[in-house]
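Weekly puzzle thread! Below is a chain. First person to post its structure in token form gets bragging rights.
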Amino acid sequence: MISILEATETNAMIENENLDVRTITMGISLLDCASEDLGLFCRNIYDKITKKARDLVKTGKEIEADFGIPIVNKRISVTPVSLAGSAACRSPEDFVKVAQTLDRAAGEVGINFLGGYSALVSKGMTDSEVNLIRSIPEALSSTEKLCSSVNVGSTKTGINMDAVALMGHIIRRTAEVTSDRDCMGCAKLVVFCNAPDDNPFMAGAFHGVTEPDTVIHVGVSGPGVVKHALESVRGADFETLCETIKKTAFKVSRVGQLVAKEASRRLNVPFGIIDLSLAPTPAVGDSVADILKEIGLEEAGAPGTTAALALLNDQVKKGGVMASSYVGGLSGAFIPVSEDQGMIRAAEKGALTLEKLEAMTCVCSVGLDMIAIPGDTTEESIAGILADEMAIGMVNQKTTAVRLIPAIGKQVGDRVTFGGLLGSAPVMPVNTFSCEPFIRRGGRIPAPIHSFKN
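Winning reply:
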């Protein structure tokens, strides 16, 4: 039972503090669509998605109207296409046709994004997975709503350095073929270590093979709510600070729980997880960097930033776990540079560097996210950045990810602009010393000793 006080608090969070349900994501299995005939496979995909998700957007809008809770995105995640399409797709060109089919289905049901154009290659790559990965530049340049992800490492298997080197090439090529749109394709491509099966957030969402045929996941955001709460305890000790974050995260998670249960009931689809992630937007007052400032830093990137982010991430998770028995996905704090006006400000001032962001990813929920780098950055340097971030995830038994935008034709101080939730980003400097011999070794970095737990 929700009390009048709780209802009033929630209304204030929505009206004044940028609280929203960032996404309702419907996961859909494509395994039963499989066929050796490419045309039939594409028809099966289109028919299943348009049937299962036909009421997703309408239901989301009805819940918004009935409860007064903004639901920013309605999305779909599908089984990693390299798995579902292994029988039908024998070349990169075949996978592009599947990508375009997925994009048509997404347009038909009216969603914002569709994720799952993905490959899971942490230990090795099949021909199907290589073909999908090689198709990514054309797939993302010829579609609007499609998102792609590749998992190249895990704590249990180590890091597939052949896949890392390949992704260095693919990221740069994707930037080149979408350079007329400020390299927009790279904003829809993420490289993972320890990718979760139930992540509702793009660009990394896919429908894991352990999931049911269809499922509803909800991602909740609220950096502005947390910042506002911390303003009331400015100067207080760490115990008070932590309790305030935890209680606020609990309240935000309960909003997500309400929406998830209602969406599940109305769509007659099982409820999966709540992902409570402080996902910022370019809007003023909706910034993780501003939370860090409220904790006591002059700017994000100042000494103490990693400790402050660790504190924030932990308390958000604790509050979320108390609010719902089914917290999953990523959950915690995102630090995408282009999507957070406070991070943009810190990067432009020089307070925030690529190296400091990498240190922060040791304790945050994701990784190096939405970072624009000079357009002449080599494939090997891109792969080296990927390898560094994958190592952080592997050794620390956590999810890490990289979404880099090599800004073709641009240098440090220039800017890329995507609009909407993706925002804009200043081009940040990259260490120019070479790592090419390291990347060209090939093979696999073994899993750490603590991965052996059988």
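Puzzle host: Confirmed. Bonus trivia for everyone else. DSSP finds 15 helices and 14 strands in the chain.
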